[in-house]
Design brief:
InterPro entries: LEA_2 (IPR004864), NDR1-like (IPR044839). By secondary structure, the chain is an alpha+beta fold. The chain is 18% helix and 49% strand. It is elongated, with a radius of gyration of 35 Å. About 5% of the residues have low confidence.
């Protein structure tokens, strides 16, 4: 059987000098252009997002205590300890200082505390949307029934003389709205110091089995600023 000679063609398989295929250079150039395009697109989007953030970055909402009324503040002593019954009405002003950003308040709770101790249960306030530059009044009736307090609680109130400072606390979750875009949830905490005048002339220093501390005390404020953590 005769053997046929095999000749190599100079164009066989598109081989060029150096051992590379002709298509390799084309693929490398295409990948390089695609990489540059994606990099430029991502950089442009990041730059746009940063510019929009500078323009629309939201400022914290403002809260001011407008009014607080103590309807009941009764301290009872028993073998189990001292128990406090309280009823407090509050009015807080909420303002959105942003001109391009709205706020969704998806959860709001309020309670009163004295010297770091919660003296009422949390009250739920209605959820709402606050538009650009809008102001809303938030009212809540806070109450606490048979809340355990230290034996020195009554004496601490008496030491303040005719003024006691309660703290009105609000907390919850909000979302920012810019155009049709809505952010995720952000947790916020509001603390309002509420100076309350007391009439203690009939209150003994050591309360008996049932002592009535000041009742029907009202305080009106001209926008007493509250602190907010967001």
């Amino acid at each position: 059987m005769s053997q046929l000679p095999i000749r190599s063609s100079p164009k066989h398989c598109g081989i060029k000098q150096g051992g590379y295929l002709k298509g390799d250079n084309y693929n490398y150039s295409a990948y390089k252009k695609l990489f540059y395009f994606i990099s430029s697109l991502v950089l442009s989007l990041l730059s746009l997002a940063f510019i929009l953030w500078l323009i629309f970055r939201p400022s914290k909402p403002h809260f001011n205590l407008k009014e607080s009324d103590i309807y009941q503040l009764n301290l009872s002593a028993s073998p189990q300890g001292h128990l406090l019954n309280s009823t407090i009405q509050i009015t807080v002003v909420s303002n959105n200082p942003n001109h391009r950003v709205g706020i969704y308040y998806d959860r709001i709770r309020a309670y009163a505390s004295y010297k770091g101790q919660q003296i009422t249960v949390e009250a739920a306030l209605p959820t709402f949307y606050q538009g650009h530059g809008e102001t809303n009044l938030l009212t809540a009736l806070l109450s606490g029934d048979w809340v355990p307090v230290p034996p020195s609680f009554g004496d601490q109130l008496l030491l303040h003389g005719q003024m006691v400072i309660l703290n009105i606390k609000l907390n919850g979750r909000l979302r920012w709205k810019v155009g049709s875009w809505v952010s995720g949830h952000y947790h916020f905490n509001v603390d309002c110091a509420a100076p309350m005048p007391l009439d203690l002339y009939a209150v003994p220093v050591s309360p008996p089995a049932a002592s009535s501390l000041p009742t029907s005390t009202s305080s009106n404020y001209r926008g007493l600023p509250c602190s907010i953590d967001l």
